[in-house]
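re: that chain from earlier
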Amino acid sequence: MTYNPYDCLNTIEYIGPRPQKPKKNFFGGWVILVISVIMALVFGRPLLASLKSEQVAGTQAAADTMIEELSENATASHKLAIAALALTKSDNPESAVNNSADLLLKVYQNGLGINLKDLLHEDMSNAFSQYPQLWYERGASKEIDASRVQNIQRFFHRSGDDFGAADPLMGDVIFWTLPDGNAHAAIIVPGPGLHSNEKWIVHHWQGSVVWENKLSEFIMPLGRYRFGQ
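^ sequence. v structure.
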């Protein structure tokens, strides 16, 4: 008979109820989720409303407050910012702006009394070949040339330094090339309310003049200038 060393290990019989795995509470997780959603709606709705109202104020109601604050300092950069912000107000009879070029013409005329159209026409008449040759024009045209952002950007470039490498300041005029290839322009202004230390822009966008926190959203700048300052 062969000896098996494991014969001495006898099976122990367990007496009692059979162990069972704890059942998962299916409804418990859903109850917690529903409570979380309700709390988010109750406490989050006032916050969202507050943020939304602040954004609306940033483009409309807060313009009066910011204009009043900027009016305490009569520097050229402040005047340009004031003129730009005034164009964001829908109750301003002079706020009708057709495009980015028209925005710049109005801001400089209203803010500094500078007639960009006349200055541009004079320079283009004397140095037409130095301007973008994109429209197959044979000479300067006062009304048409001032409606093109590229021409105004070239005039600023010929009239002063490009501050694109410096920190942006209030009153700076910045030009971009949009993804669709069109030229775009904006005036740098302070933000509204709690954002007054931030650099926002006033620009013509989708048919109206808006005051937005989008300075960093345009990634193809053509130049930044401080003409008239």
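The longest strand covers residues 183-190.
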